[in-house]
């Protein structure tokens, strides 16, 4: 007598497999058992298709994924692309079937066997950008000419793919809006597509360049009020819409500020971060200059504070922090540079009660001094990385 494991039980089992180090190999094996196992595995793998081991900078890899996305497009979108002389093969080859086992079709079929897009919980605009760039670069090289209309064609493909994501994803959880192609793509505002409100309403994580078109951030601020994690990569400007989006959140817990080389800093955003002084529990800053850091003093409920700078002992405004008590702080890290040793010792004295991890890039001559301070002020200490 055949024993069938219920789908909800398979979900639990496969979720545990997904958490393991070799998750893709494990779930790929499950794909080959039967239709039910395949469907449950596919649903988990496509939840974050961008995390799979693809190199989106390589033509072959990017073409495979853009082909499957195009195959999933509704007929009206396919017709629109054809009307604009955009032809992307949607007959799925055996190569697609072998690609980590996440595209399941018959070799001659024109439609995937599953509604892959509906399984997605993560959307990466940057990865879509990269795939489309590679596709059109290949088109140009194959005919040894440059189509001046390629920017329009690329925008049209992006538009139809994003429209499909907005229409078929019931609840997007993570959105990465980084663009690696051309500046005018920073103006794509897909928040006005049909069903985008339903798709984006429960968004909990956002990673974005600071200079994305202001209208995108403004529209997102009207839809999303419970984003818990925001990662900002600073470029040449800070959009006014981004300021509005940050101030409109109700429960921001995790904030990451990353300053690219020779780009603007985070000063403009500081007044809009103050609203979150009670809710923010993790702050990570990576900057090429020395501050300012004094605004951190308002986040007294921080549990994790991770700072990275390229300049030793030049933390502008950081001295103010040595007098602040972060009652719940359990992780304190400094990378590539850190405050002066006396400031660090004062920090440990005021905040060592619950500290479990302390990382500091300091000269060897100060190691013993800091170790003594850790032993004295940090009774719960577990991890110590100095030097």
UniProtKB/TrEMBL annotation:
Highest rank taxon of the organism: Eukaryota
Species for this entry: Rhizophagus irregularis (strain DAOM 197198w)
SUPFAM superfamilies: RNI-like (SSF52047)
Xref: InterPro entries: LRR_dom_sf (IPR032675)
Name of the protein in its database record: F-box domain-containing protein
Gene3D superfamilies the UniProt entry points to: Ribonuclease Inhibitor
